[in-house]
Amino acid sequence: MENKQTPLGYISFSVFAWIVGLLIFFPIFWMVLTSFKTELEAVSIPPSFISFDWTLENYAEVQERSNYFKFAMNSVILAVGSTLVGLVFAVTCAWAMAFNPTKRTKDALLWMLSTKMMPPVGVLVPIYLVFRDWGLLDTRFGLIMVLFLMNLPIMVWMLYTYFKEIPTDILEAARMDGATLPKEIIFVLLPMAVPGIASTMLLNVILAWNEAFWTLNLTTSDAAPLTAFIASYSSPEGLFWAKLSAASTLAVAPILVIGWFSQKQLVRGLTFGAVK
Amino acid sequence: MGAIRLEKVKKSFGTLDVIPGVDLDINDGEFVVFVGPSGCGKSTLLRLIAGLEDVTDGKILIDGTDVANEAPAKRGLSMVFQSYALYPHMTVYNNIAFGLKMAGESKDVIDQKVQSAAKILNLTDYLDRRPGALSGGQRQRVAIGRAIVRNPAAFLFDEPLSNLDAALRVNMRLEITGLHQELKTTMIYVTHDQVEAMTMADKIVVLQAGRVEQVGKPMELYNSPANKFVAGFIGSPKMNFLGGELAAKHNCHEIGIRPEHLTVSTDRGDIAATVKIAEHLGAETYLHVEADGLGPMTVRATGEMPLGEHDKIFLTPEQDRIHRFDAHGLALGPS
Ligand SMILES: Nc1ncnc2c1ncn2[C@@H]1O[C@H](COP(=O)(O)OP(=O)(O)OP(=O)(O)O)[C@@H](O)[C@H]1O
Ligand SMILES: [Mg+2]
């Protein structure tokens, strides 16, 4: 295996990586910056970079006009709720697939993943009608169900790849030791899979937190999370870039902080166990 | 008590008949070793007894009760895995205690049993460690500790020593034999290793392609193998098989003669041969020779032999040690 890098190659790769990183980061940086500007400065051309009158006005006004904490609370409930419900189903499903595979297990996994390739808007009408008829519109329960089902394939996949790495012998040893199936899963499998479960949960919290299509379409106020909070600042009242930026910053801040502190688990999770 | 009886036990994976039908009797307190070539179904048979695989057909009787459809835990057996299969997130203490906890034993009982097992296995100083911080031999002892605290009707071992280095293997072999003498519990032991099989077993079961070829005491298998397969499998180096005129002289299709039952001489003997390779081990010498008109043979001579490549020698089989086989490979008994 040739794995040596010339210094020049190494440097150019680093520079390239940094450029890509900065490109991705720039909009977020600009959003945060804009949230501290006045509306006037926010749209001034040429844009001012650091030398403007820093103000917290936007944040005050955003909180005053719409209750940030109510939206944030909904976001937390939806993200955590859908992840916990998903975990119960995904753990049992992944256990079956990883430790009792059949000829069709791989097909089933692929089929599950393929559902993620369908554009959500394709099922908007039926789901909307079901929600309307069952009185689930604008309820947290309804949204938790949708978000959980939406992310279930990914949770199963991730847990499956983690479980695959656990030697079956150990579970069999537990069986010989007299553990019933629930005990085998709770006392033996789950503790060994903690890193995998942590990254699975984390990724799903983030996916559910960022989910905008269903949360915007199926809620109005009671169950509306931060995505709706941001959306409410976009068009109808003219363009308020600074306030929109402040709202967005508030919406992404919590998840950004969580993401920052759990980078390692996230990276492991996102590689889907592809690299050992 | 731990008498185990298999009646027409069958196992198929899909269309693959791994165990076409095995009958076997294991007496209480016996040390039984399963040997056979790789892939012959030793592990599968053990796992069927353990209950980790479901039988396709047949009965597994433990002390007279058919347990073929019982869960593993209900059978009262303990298993020691080749990979040790310790719970990596638990301390040694909790590893050993796990089965007792699952059985709902009280804290005091658990503690007393774990401590006494740890004492037998020299693990007292390691009870607070995780398996990751133990050597291979210590891990193996924890696995055995986990098996003995449950006071099983029988122990099942699947190649428990194959991950250990040679010196440790000898030690653990003696320890397991010692344990068997002390506990007098039935043990079923799967191995590849001739020496383990010969030294540990009360009874050896030789398997091939899921079939029992022969069951018997180690020396019975060595002295009177029932067929060519067992003859070739038991004993190392392998038995020499010779056909042709020599076999005809003994009224059979083929004769078998073990490398240690050939006397070597430089001037006269029954079979003329040329040395190809001589392996000098000190206490003995293995000669790989080309016998005139008979093909390659192996000779095991005691002591040092000043022989090397191209040397001409003569071999004489010990007459009462010749095994005779018919065209189907079945042993014919002495001529
Ligand atoms: N779950 C399974 N599905 C399909 N075939 C299997 C399964 N388990 C074992 N086999 C097959 O059954 C046969 C016997 O396997 P087994 O593991 O019992 O052999 P073994 O005698 O223990 O071999 P080794 O000495 O290499 O451990 C093999 O051909 C194996 O491929
Ligand atoms: Mg095996």
UniProtKB/TrEMBL annotation, chain A:
ABC transmembrane type-1 domain boundaries: 72-262
* Stretches that traverse the bilayer: 7-30, 76-97, 109-131, 143-163, 184-209, 240-261
Give the subcellular location: Cell membrane
State any GO BP term from the record: transmembrane transport
Q: Which residues form a coiled coil?
A: none
Q: How does it sit in the membrane?
A: Multi-pass membrane protein
The record's listing under Pfam families reads: BPD_transp_1
One Gene Ontology cellular component term attached to this UniProt record is: plasma membrane
Q: Which UniProt keywords apply?
A: Cell membrane, Membrane, Transmembrane, Transmembrane helix, Transport
Principal location class: membrane
Q: Record's family? A: Belongs to the binding-protein-dependent transport system permease family.
| Annotated protein name in UniProt | Carbohydrate ABC transporter permease
The beginning of the lineage is:
Bacteria, Pseudomonadati, Pseudomonadota, Alphaproteobacteria, Rhodospirillales
Automatic annotation (TrEMBL), chain B:
Task: Give this protein's Gene Ontology molecular function annotations.
Answer: ABC-type maltose transporter activity; ATP binding; ATP hydrolysis activity
Transmembrane ranges?
A: none
Domain ABC transporter residue range list: 4-234
Q: Which GO terms describe its cellular component?
A: ATP-binding cassette (ABC) transporter complex, substrate-binding subunit-containing; maltose transport complex
SMART domains, alphabetized: AAA
Pfam families in the cross-refs: ABC_tran (PF00005), TOBE_2 (PF08402)
**Highest taxon in the source lineage:** Bacteria
Key words, A-Z: ATP-binding, Nucleotide-binding, Transport
PROSITE patterns from the xrefs?
A: ABC_TRANSPORTER_1 (PS00211), ABC_TRANSPORTER_2 (PS50893)
Concerning InterPro entries, the annotation shows: AAA+_ATPase (IPR003593), ABC_transporter-like_ATP-bd (IPR003439), ABC_transporter-like_CS (IPR017871), ABC_transpr_MalK-like (IPR015855), ABC_transpr_MalK/UgpC-like (IPR047641), Mo/tungstate-bd_C_term_dom (IPR008995), NA-bd_OB-fold (IPR012340), P-loop_NTPase (IPR027417)
What's the name of the protein?
ABC transporter ATP-binding protein
This chain's source organism reads: Thalassospira povalilytica
